[in-house]
């Protein structure tokens, strides 16, 4: 058998974490959440700036806005994931925006899926939302797959959406509509 005939196998998928806790954030979580969002890989996929302080995080947690939910994934006493669900007001009160971050060492282990399940449960069954929307960098293929798996569809391509790592990068705007 020559190299062209060899079967290429996908590496085994990382195992899911046993004992993952999904819970609401409190201002007391500011230090752990700050450590998460300051990780290079985590920050790379978000709009956060480097060197966020615990004081900035605490202030954000204290002022989430009406109906805003910060949901955390905790494993072995460490915050390894975060998802913010921010309902809109007025004529867009049927809509929420979503932003998520997962620890660099825990991607591909079901953390994002667990956070998404919790957030969509809140959106569908507690807030009565019809639309959840987000933006995602076009090169964040694992996040895009997660969003698509949860019913999100791409609605637009935002050119030069944000400045990251010394250059402008594009993003997709995605949304999930509940019938």
TrEMBL record:
Coiled-coil stretches noted in the UniProt entry, renumbered to this chain: none
One GO cellular component term: cytoplasm
Ranges for domain N-acetyltransferase: 20-179
Transmembrane segments: none
Domain of life: Bacteria
Name this protein carries in UniProt: GNAT family N-acetyltransferase
Gene3D superfamilies given in the database record: 3.40.630.30
Molecular function as annotated in GO: protein-N-terminal-alanine acetyltransferase activity
Keywords for the protein's UniProt record, in alphabetical order: Acyltransferase, Transferase
Pfam families the record matches: Acetyltransf_1
Taxonomic lineage: Bacteria, Pseudomonadati, Pseudomonadota, Alphaproteobacteria, Hyphomicrobiales
């Amino acid at each position: 058998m020559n190299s062209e005939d060899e079967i290429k196998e996908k590496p085994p998928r990382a195992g899911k974490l046993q004992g993952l806790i999904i819970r609401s954030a409190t201002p007391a979580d500011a230090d752990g959440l700050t450590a998460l969002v300051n990780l290079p890989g985590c920050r790379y996929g978000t709009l956060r700036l480097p060197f966020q302080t615990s004081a900035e995080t605490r202030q954000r947690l204290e002022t989430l806005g009406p109906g805003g939910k910060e949901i955390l994934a905790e494993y072995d006493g460490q915050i390894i994931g975060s998802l913010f669900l921010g309902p809109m007001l007025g004529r867009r009160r049927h809509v929420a925006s979503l932003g998520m971050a997962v620890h660099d060492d825990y991607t591909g282990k079901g953390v994002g899926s667990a956070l998404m399940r919790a957030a969509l449960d809140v959106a569908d069954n507690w807030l009565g939302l019809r639309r959840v929307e987000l933006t995602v960098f076009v090169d964040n293929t694992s996040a895009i797959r997660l969003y698509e798996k949860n019913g999100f569809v791409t609605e637009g391509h935002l050119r030069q959406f944000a400045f990251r790592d010394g250059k402008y990068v594009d993003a997709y705007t995605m949304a999930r509509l509940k019938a």
